[in-house]
From TrEMBL:
GO terms for molecular function: DNA-binding transcription factor activity; sequence-specific DNA binding. It comes from Jejubacter calystegiae. InterPro entries: AraC-bd, Homeodomain-like_sf, HTH-like, HTH_AraC, HTH_AraC-typ_CS, Tscrpt_reg_AraC-type_HTH. The keyword ATP-binding does not apply. NCBIfam families: PRK10572.1 (NF007860). Signal peptide: none annotated. This is Arabinose operon regulatory protein. Gene3D superfamilies: Homeodomain-like, Regulatory protein AraC. The keyword DNA-binding applies. Keywords: Activator, DNA-binding, Transcription, Transcription regulation. It holds the Pfam family HTH_18. Residues 180-279 form the HTH araC/xylS-type domain.
Amino acid sequence: MTETQNDPLLPGYSFNAHLVAGLTPIEASGPLDFFIDRPLGMKGFILNRTVRGEGIINNQGQQFICRTGDMLLFPPGEVHHYGRHPDSPEWYHQWVYFRPRAYWHEWLNWPAIFAKTGFFRPAEEHQRHFSRLFQLIIDAGHGEGRYAELLAINLLEQLLLRRMDALSESQKAPLDNRVRDACQYITDHLADSRFDIASVAQHVCLSPSRLSHLFRQQLGVSVLGWREDQRISQARLLLSTTRLPIASVGRNVGFEDQLYFSRVFKKCTGASPSEFRAGCEQLNRDESLNHV
């Protein structure tokens, strides 16, 4: 019989809790100096913040070097292949594994360095605050009290909100009104299976090419990419908060073919719609038991 691994820093640990957090102190040739390799990712999210040294993230032939203060967000199903950069003597990083609340989806839509791996680097004046929040999450996550995990989740929510606040504070120019109107139009027409960029461009009085350029310039993503993110986010919300049949959820976000909807949803989230809903229901049952 295989022995359960109780140390989250070592391979084989089962991440079954709603939130697990810690600090991984990797030093060259030390016991933790190996690469994490999870080609299928995990069921939950992992938030990673480099404390000192450098780490290297690999994803299907692409690489990213993370340095002190960098924060990375690995969503469910994202490739995990990372470790100490070979030219750095150490890589200390704080991390939080978590299963999000249903209403967090907007806060977890981070710009990607590649694939779905999100990236955020706070401005220097905010670095100390994010470091403190991370440490509070870790401390709460290691607590043994009845409400330790709930406190850690609450602190994580604060961190995500602080990031949103920092982003709005650092935004040098407001979003172009035509891009904002285009986003609203797309959101209002998610159920339209005959969507095309030309109709959005016409609505905001731009050519399709100009709209596409503005979208990439201001949001860092294509029109179709942004729409797909919104469709999947709305589908996740409907699956986690309603009992609508899966086919109806798909139609609500513009997928007439249920099989195609399931295929796209799984590609984006790492789980089929039915698996995602079952996971949400299990999470809600577990939370109800925790409150008894």
